[in-house]
Design brief:
about 70 residues, 3 helices, about 30% helix
């Protein structure tokens, strides 16, 4: 998704994550700090806009949206 937006690997992003499996969503919430560090997320929460894609990972459907922090503050 970063590549589609031509973002540098270190650029901070905002992330909106909707996981359709409650167990997996709970694991994501439990490890949100680590995930945030790995993906350079400044914040997790609802995004009205941004680059949004649907994914299926090991049979679990999820929708992820990202937005560069620089764009959010511009």
């Amino acid at each position: 998704m970063r590549k589609n937006l031509e973002l540098d690997i270190e650029e901070e992003i905002e992330v909106d994550l909707d996981v359709k499996d409650d167990r997996v969503a709970g694991l994501v919430r439990e490890h949100e700090d680590l995930i945030g560090q790995e993906v350079r997320a400044a914040d997790f929460g609802a995004l009205e806009d941004g680059h949004r894609e649907s994914w299926t990972v090991e049979g679990v459907e999820m929708e992820i949206a990202i937005k560069p922090v620089s764009e959010a503050t511009a």
